[in-house]
Amino acid sequence: MVFDAPPAQHTAHAWMPSSPCGPGCIERIDEVGTGRVIARLLGVAGLLVSFLVVNVATPRGRREHLQRRYTRMVLDCLGIQLRVVDNRVTTSGVGGASSDTRFADPGEGVLIVAGHIGWTDVVVLASVQPLGFVARADMVDWPVLGGLAKLMRVIPIERERLRELPGVVARLGARLAAGDRVAVFPEGTTWCGRAYGSMRPALFQAAVDTGTSVQPVRLRYLDSNGAQSTVPGFVGEDTFGSSAMRVLRSKGMVAEVVLEPLEYPGLDRRDLARRCERAVRGTETSRHGVLAAQEWIEAGVTRVQDPELAEDTPVVVRRRRPFLRSSGRRVDAADA
Asked: Cys staple from 229: which of 18, 223, 281, 289, with CB 3.0 to 4.6 Å?
Protein backbone atom coordinates (compact mmCIF):
# COMPACT_ATOMS: atom_id res chain seq x y z
CA MET A 1 0.00 0.00 0.00
CA VAL A 2 2.74 2.40 0.91
CA PHE A 3 6.47 2.84 0.54
CA ASP A 4 7.54 0.95 3.63
CA ALA A 5 10.81 0.20 5.34
CA PRO A 6 11.85 -3.40 5.95
CA PRO A 7 9.43 -5.15 8.32
CA ALA A 8 9.96 -4.58 12.00
CA GLN A 9 10.36 -7.44 14.42
CA HIS A 10 7.21 -6.43 16.27
CA THR A 11 4.25 -4.96 14.43
CA ALA A 12 2.16 -2.17 15.90
CA HIS A 13 -1.11 -4.06 15.47
CA ALA A 14 -2.44 -7.39 14.24
CA TRP A 15 -3.18 -6.08 10.74
CA MET A 16 0.26 -4.57 10.14
CA PRO A 17 1.66 -6.18 6.95
CA SER A 18 4.95 -8.01 7.36
CA SER A 19 7.27 -9.83 4.99
CA PRO A 20 9.48 -12.85 5.72
CA CYS A 21 12.01 -11.70 3.13
CA GLY A 22 15.48 -11.00 4.50
CA PRO A 23 19.19 -10.93 3.62
CA GLY A 24 19.03 -14.52 2.39
CA CYS A 25 16.79 -13.40 -0.47
CA ILE A 26 19.40 -10.98 -1.84
CA GLU A 27 21.62 -12.57 -4.46
CA ARG A 28 24.76 -10.84 -5.69
CA ILE A 29 25.18 -9.78 -9.31
CA ASP A 30 28.07 -8.25 -11.25
CA GLU A 31 29.45 -5.12 -9.59
CA VAL A 32 31.28 -2.00 -10.74
CA GLY A 33 34.43 -0.64 -9.11
CA THR A 34 34.68 1.93 -6.35
CA GLY A 35 35.51 4.73 -8.79
CA ARG A 36 32.31 4.12 -10.73
CA VAL A 37 30.30 4.04 -7.50
CA ILE A 38 31.66 7.46 -6.50
CA ALA A 39 30.94 8.85 -9.96
CA ARG A 40 27.36 7.55 -9.80
CA LEU A 41 26.82 9.04 -6.36
CA LEU A 42 28.15 12.43 -7.43
CA GLY A 43 25.99 12.26 -10.57
CA VAL A 44 22.82 11.67 -8.56
CA ALA A 45 23.69 14.48 -6.13
CA GLY A 46 24.39 16.87 -9.01
CA LEU A 47 21.11 16.05 -10.71
CA LEU A 48 19.10 16.63 -7.56
CA VAL A 49 20.74 19.99 -6.87
CA SER A 50 20.37 21.22 -10.44
CA PHE A 51 16.78 20.00 -10.66
CA LEU A 52 15.67 22.23 -7.80
CA VAL A 53 16.89 25.25 -9.77
CA VAL A 54 15.85 24.19 -13.27
CA ASN A 55 12.37 23.08 -12.17
CA VAL A 56 11.56 26.51 -10.76
CA ALA A 57 12.80 28.23 -13.92
CA THR A 58 10.80 25.96 -16.24
CA PRO A 59 7.27 26.99 -17.31
CA ARG A 60 4.61 24.91 -15.57
CA GLY A 61 3.39 23.40 -18.83
CA ARG A 62 6.81 21.89 -19.55
CA ARG A 63 7.66 20.63 -16.07
CA GLU A 64 6.28 17.13 -16.60
CA HIS A 65 8.67 16.57 -19.50
CA LEU A 66 11.53 18.00 -17.43
CA GLN A 67 10.73 15.82 -14.40
CA ARG A 68 10.52 12.70 -16.54
CA ARG A 69 13.85 13.47 -18.18
CA TYR A 70 15.59 14.12 -14.87
CA THR A 71 14.20 10.95 -13.30
CA ARG A 72 15.53 8.89 -16.21
CA MET A 73 18.94 10.51 -15.78
CA VAL A 74 18.85 9.50 -12.10
CA LEU A 75 18.20 5.92 -13.20
CA ASP A 76 21.17 6.17 -15.57
CA CYS A 77 23.37 7.37 -12.71
CA LEU A 78 22.18 4.44 -10.59
CA GLY A 79 23.20 2.09 -13.39
CA ILE A 80 19.62 0.96 -14.04
CA GLN A 81 18.31 0.64 -17.58
CA LEU A 82 14.57 1.22 -18.05
CA ARG A 83 12.42 -1.07 -20.18
CA VAL A 84 8.72 -0.26 -20.57
CA VAL A 85 6.27 -2.72 -22.13
CA ASP A 86 2.70 -1.65 -22.83
CA ASN A 87 0.22 -4.54 -22.89
CA ARG A 88 -2.81 -2.27 -23.05
CA VAL A 89 -5.04 -2.31 -26.11
CA THR A 90 -4.91 0.97 -28.01
CA THR A 91 -6.72 2.30 -31.04
CA SER A 92 -3.91 0.95 -33.20
CA GLY A 93 -3.91 -2.46 -31.56
CA VAL A 94 -1.78 -3.93 -28.79
CA GLY A 95 1.15 -1.90 -27.59
CA GLY A 96 4.69 -3.05 -27.00
CA ALA A 97 8.08 -1.85 -25.83
CA SER A 98 8.38 1.93 -26.09
CA SER A 99 10.39 4.73 -24.54
CA ASP A 100 7.43 7.12 -24.79
CA THR A 101 4.79 5.02 -23.04
CA ARG A 102 2.89 6.86 -20.30
CA PHE A 103 0.39 5.88 -17.65
CA ALA A 104 -2.29 8.33 -18.81
CA ASP A 105 -2.91 11.49 -20.80
CA PRO A 106 -2.40 14.82 -18.97
CA GLY A 107 -5.33 15.61 -16.68
CA GLU A 108 -6.60 12.01 -16.69
CA GLY A 109 -6.74 10.60 -13.19
CA VAL A 110 -5.54 7.03 -12.71
CA LEU A 111 -4.56 4.89 -9.73
CA ILE A 112 -1.32 2.98 -10.39
CA VAL A 113 -0.75 -0.20 -8.37
CA ALA A 114 2.39 -2.33 -8.28
CA GLY A 115 4.20 -4.84 -6.13
CA HIS A 116 6.70 -3.29 -3.76
CA ILE A 117 10.39 -4.27 -3.86
CA GLY A 118 12.37 -1.27 -2.67
CA TRP A 119 12.96 2.49 -2.78
CA THR A 120 14.03 2.30 -6.44
CA ASP A 121 10.39 1.54 -7.32
CA VAL A 122 9.57 5.21 -6.78
CA VAL A 123 12.27 6.36 -9.21
CA VAL A 124 11.38 3.72 -11.81
CA LEU A 125 7.65 4.51 -11.86
CA ALA A 126 8.28 8.27 -11.93
CA SER A 127 10.58 7.79 -14.92
CA VAL A 128 7.65 6.40 -16.92
CA GLN A 129 5.59 9.49 -16.10
CA PRO A 130 5.68 11.92 -13.16
CA LEU A 131 3.12 10.97 -10.52
CA GLY A 132 2.32 11.18 -6.84
CA PHE A 133 2.59 8.41 -4.26
CA VAL A 134 0.97 7.27 -1.06
CA ALA A 135 4.08 6.92 1.10
CA ARG A 136 5.22 6.45 4.66
CA ALA A 137 5.04 9.73 6.53
CA ASP A 138 8.73 9.95 7.45
CA MET A 139 9.91 9.49 3.87
CA VAL A 140 10.21 13.28 3.51
CA ASP A 141 13.08 13.15 6.03
CA TRP A 142 15.09 10.62 4.01
CA PRO A 143 18.26 11.69 2.22
CA VAL A 144 17.88 12.05 -1.55
CA LEU A 145 14.32 10.74 -1.75
CA GLY A 146 12.97 13.25 0.77
CA GLY A 147 13.27 16.16 -1.64
CA LEU A 148 11.69 14.15 -4.41
CA ALA A 149 8.85 13.15 -2.09
CA LYS A 150 7.97 16.79 -1.49
CA LEU A 151 8.02 17.59 -5.21
CA MET A 152 5.78 14.59 -5.88
CA ARG A 153 3.24 15.86 -3.33
CA VAL A 154 3.37 12.57 -1.47
CA ILE A 155 0.24 11.59 0.48
CA PRO A 156 1.69 10.56 3.87
CA ILE A 157 0.40 7.61 5.83
CA GLU A 158 1.38 6.18 9.20
CA ARG A 159 0.51 2.52 9.12
CA GLU A 160 0.68 2.32 12.89
CA ARG A 161 -2.37 4.60 13.12
CA LEU A 162 -5.25 2.80 11.46
CA ARG A 163 -7.74 5.46 12.48
CA GLU A 164 -6.08 7.85 10.02
CA LEU A 165 -6.78 5.53 7.10
CA PRO A 166 -10.15 7.10 6.11
CA GLY A 167 -8.46 10.49 5.80
CA VAL A 168 -5.76 9.02 3.56
CA VAL A 169 -8.41 7.38 1.36
CA ALA A 170 -10.28 10.69 1.15
CA ARG A 171 -7.15 12.65 0.15
CA LEU A 172 -6.27 10.00 -2.41
CA GLY A 173 -9.78 10.15 -3.84
CA ALA A 174 -9.61 13.95 -4.08
CA ARG A 175 -6.35 13.74 -6.02
CA LEU A 176 -7.77 11.15 -8.40
CA ALA A 177 -10.94 13.19 -8.93
CA ALA A 178 -8.77 16.21 -9.75
CA GLY A 179 -7.12 14.27 -12.58
CA ASP A 180 -3.88 13.31 -10.82
CA ARG A 181 -1.89 10.12 -11.29
CA VAL A 182 -1.13 8.49 -7.94
CA ALA A 183 0.73 5.24 -7.26
CA VAL A 184 0.17 2.93 -4.31
CA PHE A 185 1.84 -0.29 -3.18
CA PRO A 186 -1.08 -2.34 -1.82
CA GLU A 187 1.09 -5.07 -0.26
CA GLY A 188 1.85 -2.57 2.50
CA THR A 189 5.51 -3.56 2.83
CA THR A 190 8.52 -4.52 0.73
CA TRP A 191 9.29 -7.99 -0.61
CA CYS A 192 12.35 -9.31 -2.42
CA GLY A 193 10.74 -9.38 -5.87
CA ARG A 194 10.50 -13.14 -6.24
CA ALA A 195 8.27 -13.54 -3.22
CA TYR A 196 5.23 -11.33 -2.70
CA GLY A 197 2.31 -10.66 -0.41
CA SER A 198 -1.40 -10.08 -0.85
CA MET A 199 -2.77 -6.73 -1.98
CA ARG A 200 -4.72 -5.01 0.78
CA PRO A 201 -8.04 -3.55 -0.47
CA ALA A 202 -8.26 -0.36 1.62
CA LEU A 203 -6.78 2.21 -0.78
CA PHE A 204 -8.69 0.73 -3.72
CA GLN A 205 -11.76 2.34 -2.14
CA ALA A 206 -10.59 5.71 -3.47
CA ALA A 207 -10.85 4.39 -7.04
CA VAL A 208 -14.30 2.92 -6.33
CA ASP A 209 -15.55 6.18 -4.78
CA THR A 210 -14.36 8.31 -7.69
CA GLY A 211 -14.95 5.87 -10.55
CA THR A 212 -11.25 6.06 -11.43
CA SER A 213 -9.60 3.39 -13.57
CA VAL A 214 -6.72 1.43 -12.05
CA GLN A 215 -3.47 0.74 -13.89
CA PRO A 216 -1.85 -2.55 -12.77
CA VAL A 217 1.92 -2.49 -13.25
CA ARG A 218 4.14 -5.55 -13.22
CA LEU A 219 7.52 -4.35 -11.98
CA ARG A 220 10.65 -6.48 -11.78
CA TYR A 221 14.42 -6.09 -11.91
CA LEU A 222 16.67 -8.17 -14.15
CA ASP A 223 20.41 -8.74 -14.16
CA SER A 224 22.67 -8.60 -17.21
CA ASN A 225 21.73 -12.20 -18.08
CA GLY A 226 18.01 -11.48 -18.03
CA ALA A 227 17.42 -13.35 -14.76
CA GLN A 228 15.29 -11.75 -12.07
CA SER A 229 17.41 -9.81 -9.58
CA THR A 230 16.69 -9.25 -5.89
CA VAL A 231 19.42 -6.63 -5.43
CA PRO A 232 16.95 -3.70 -5.16
CA GLY A 233 14.97 -5.56 -2.48
CA PHE A 234 14.74 -3.34 0.62
CA VAL A 235 14.11 -6.10 3.14
CA GLY A 236 15.10 -7.49 6.52
CA GLU A 237 17.43 -5.24 8.49
CA ASP A 238 18.33 -3.09 5.48
CA THR A 239 19.02 0.60 5.99
CA PHE A 240 18.64 3.12 3.21
CA GLY A 241 22.42 3.52 3.11
CA SER A 242 23.19 -0.18 2.73
CA SER A 243 20.45 -0.63 0.14
CA ALA A 244 21.61 2.41 -1.85
CA MET A 245 25.21 1.19 -1.85
CA ARG A 246 24.12 -2.23 -3.11
CA VAL A 247 22.23 -0.61 -5.98
CA LEU A 248 25.08 1.77 -6.79
CA ARG A 249 27.50 -1.15 -7.04
CA SER A 250 25.25 -3.22 -9.32
CA LYS A 251 26.17 -3.70 -12.95
CA GLY A 252 23.86 -4.32 -15.90
CA MET A 253 20.59 -4.08 -13.98
CA VAL A 254 17.34 -3.53 -15.92
CA ALA A 255 14.05 -2.28 -14.46
CA GLU A 256 11.20 -3.76 -16.46
CA VAL A 257 7.82 -2.02 -16.21
CA VAL A 258 4.89 -3.85 -17.80
CA LEU A 259 1.64 -1.92 -18.09
CA GLU A 260 -1.25 -4.38 -18.06
CA PRO A 261 -4.77 -3.53 -19.33
CA LEU A 262 -6.68 -1.03 -17.19
CA GLU A 263 -9.06 -2.36 -14.56
CA TYR A 264 -12.38 -0.56 -14.11
CA PRO A 265 -13.16 0.14 -10.44
CA GLY A 266 -16.56 -1.51 -10.12
CA LEU A 267 -18.34 -1.38 -6.77
CA ASP A 268 -16.27 -3.71 -4.58
CA ARG A 269 -12.76 -2.79 -3.48
CA ARG A 270 -11.94 -6.39 -2.57
CA ASP A 271 -12.86 -7.64 -6.03
CA LEU A 272 -10.86 -4.78 -7.56
CA ALA A 273 -7.84 -5.69 -5.42
CA ARG A 274 -8.05 -9.34 -6.52
CA ARG A 275 -8.31 -8.41 -10.20
CA CYS A 276 -5.31 -6.10 -9.95
CA GLU A 277 -3.32 -8.72 -8.08
CA ARG A 278 -3.91 -11.26 -10.83
CA ALA A 279 -2.78 -8.71 -13.42
CA VAL A 280 0.34 -7.71 -11.49
CA ARG A 281 1.38 -11.32 -10.84
CA GLY A 282 0.86 -12.25 -14.48
CA THR A 283 -1.11 -15.38 -13.58
CA GLU A 284 -4.73 -16.40 -13.71
CA THR A 285 -4.51 -17.77 -10.17
CA SER A 286 -4.41 -15.06 -7.55
CA ARG A 287 -2.74 -15.33 -4.15
CA HIS A 288 -6.32 -15.28 -2.89
CA GLY A 289 -7.08 -18.48 -4.84
CA VAL A 290 -7.40 -21.86 -3.14
CA LEU A 291 -4.55 -23.38 -5.18
CA ALA A 292 -2.16 -20.48 -4.60
CA ALA A 293 -2.88 -20.51 -0.88
CA GLN A 294 -1.38 -24.01 -0.66
CA GLU A 295 1.84 -23.22 -2.50
CA TRP A 296 5.15 -21.98 -1.18
CA ILE A 297 6.74 -18.92 -2.74
CA GLU A 298 10.20 -19.61 -4.10
CA ALA A 299 12.72 -16.81 -3.54
CA GLY A 300 16.03 -17.99 -4.97
CA VAL A 301 17.75 -20.24 -2.47
CA THR A 302 15.54 -18.96 0.32
CA ARG A 303 12.13 -20.53 0.72
CA VAL A 304 9.65 -18.09 2.16
CA GLN A 305 5.91 -17.99 2.57
CA ASP A 306 3.33 -15.31 3.16
CA PRO A 307 2.90 -15.52 6.95
CA GLU A 308 -0.86 -15.12 6.53
CA LEU A 309 -0.92 -18.53 4.77
CA ALA A 310 1.33 -20.47 7.14
CA GLU A 311 0.01 -24.01 7.55
CA ASP A 312 0.95 -24.27 11.20
CA THR A 313 -0.90 -21.09 12.13
CA PRO A 314 -4.28 -21.84 13.73
CA VAL A 315 -7.22 -20.18 12.06
CA VAL A 316 -9.25 -18.07 14.46
CA VAL A 317 -12.63 -16.94 13.23
CA ARG A 318 -13.87 -13.83 14.91
CA ARG A 319 -16.32 -11.10 14.14
CA ARG A 320 -14.54 -7.98 12.85
CA ARG A 321 -15.47 -4.68 14.38
CA PRO A 322 -15.61 -2.01 11.68
CA PHE A 323 -14.29 1.26 13.03
CA LEU A 324 -13.11 3.05 9.91
CA ARG A 325 -15.34 4.79 7.41
CA SER A 326 -14.64 6.60 4.15
CA SER A 327 -17.09 8.30 1.77
CA GLY A 328 -19.99 6.49 3.39
CA ARG A 329 -18.44 3.05 2.90
CA ARG A 330 -17.11 0.88 5.67
CA VAL A 331 -13.35 0.31 5.73
CA ASP A 332 -12.39 -2.62 7.92
CA ALA A 333 -9.06 -2.65 9.73
CA ALA A 334 -8.22 -5.94 8.02
CA ASP A 335 -8.27 -4.11 4.67
CA ALA A 336 -5.40 -1.82 5.65
From this structure: 223
Cross-strand bridge partners of residue 136: 157
Residue 58: CB partners within 8 Å, gap ≥ 6? 66
Question: pLDDT digits over 205-217, tens only?
Answer: 999 999 999 999 9
Q: How much is the pTM?
A: 0.79
Q: What is the mean pLDDT of residues 173-190?
A: 91
**Structure confidence at residue 265 (pLDDT):** 95
